[in-house]
Amino acid sequence: MAHLSARTDAAYQNDYHHKLRGRLWDALDDTKYDQRHDDGQPPGFAYSNPFPPHDMEAGDDRKLLVASPEEELLAHVAADLLEEPELNIGEMPFRVDDVTSLSPDVGEPGTRGTIETGTGLLVRIPPWRCDEYGIDHPGGDTAVFWRPEHSMEPLRRQLEDNLDQKHDRFAHDYLPGPSDVDGDLFDGYELLKTFAIPVTVTEGQEMTYVLSKWQFEYTVRDDHHRRHLNLALDCGLGERNSLGLGFVNLKEAN
């Protein structure tokens, strides 16, 4: 967790994604993680928005969470933020005052709790799966943004498939991934809202994404399920995690 202070009065910018992504990749420049930039694979980190997300006055405190299954990657980011404490996220100028470590864990088997999306979740249905899900496709190669009228099944399966990719990349090969085990990832899915925002995906290219926010209920079945849920906390859920989408956090764990 990066502890930030605002250097000047500033309006909160909801379109922070591209600028913050650039700063984090800069922190990984000349490390072994730099080659993941734009390789089309899950980057192995996710991050929150600067929060709380309100307009700020000089000296106001904000926080920023960066998560990863790889401690060395987080160490590079933390070291860079401390060495270069000016953090300019678009028109929001911050100073990094401190960096502290957190170890979120969904808990041992039997633990019940809630994971909530801290940033918007992006789930797209590829055109070749639309028939399978009973979704009308407008034609062409464009993926369809998940919306509530598409039902829960496409969302469940796309989330699981996406987490499979992250498991393949960041877990040991001999361990079963989310789709290799019986049981769903979550017990309950509570949709909080859907919304559309413009996102700068690359310099000079802006796209409008349809995103959603959720609370996911879970009961940890066994150590494999625990690993899958913790991987979601470390890597984010859904797509475009390197843009800060799909960052999730624990709401409670009883």
- Strand coverage percent: 25-35%
Order of neighbouring strands in the sheet with most strands: 3-1-6-5
Number of helices: 5
Q: Which regions are unreliable across 5 or more consecutive residues at pLDDT < 50?
A: none
Helix content: 10-25%
Shape: globular
Rg measurement, Å: 18 Å
Largest sheet: 4 strands, antiparallel
- Which structural category fits the helices and strands? alpha+beta
Number of strand segments: 12
Could you please describe the fold and organization of this structure?
The strands form four sheets. Strands 3-1-6-5 form a four-stranded antiparallel sheet. The protein has five helices and twelve strands. The model has no long low-confidence stretch (mean pLDDT 94). By secondary structure, it is an alpha+beta fold.
A few lines on this structure:
The protein has 254 residues and is of the alpha+beta class. 25% of the residues lie in helices and 28% in strands. The protein is globular, with a radius of gyration of 18 Å.
Name some characteristics of this structure:
254 residues, alpha+beta, 4-stranded antiparallel β-sheet, globular
Any chance you could write out the topology, listing elements then pairs?
Elements: E1 2-6, H1 17-27, E2 46-47, E3 61-64, E4 66-67, H2 71-83, E5 86-89, E6 92-99, E7 112-117, E8 124-125, H3 127-133, E9 144-145, H4 152-170, E10 188-202, E11 205-219, H5 223-235, E12 248-253
Antiparallel strand pairs: 1-3, 1-6, 2-4, 5-6, 7-11, 7-12, 8-9, 10-11
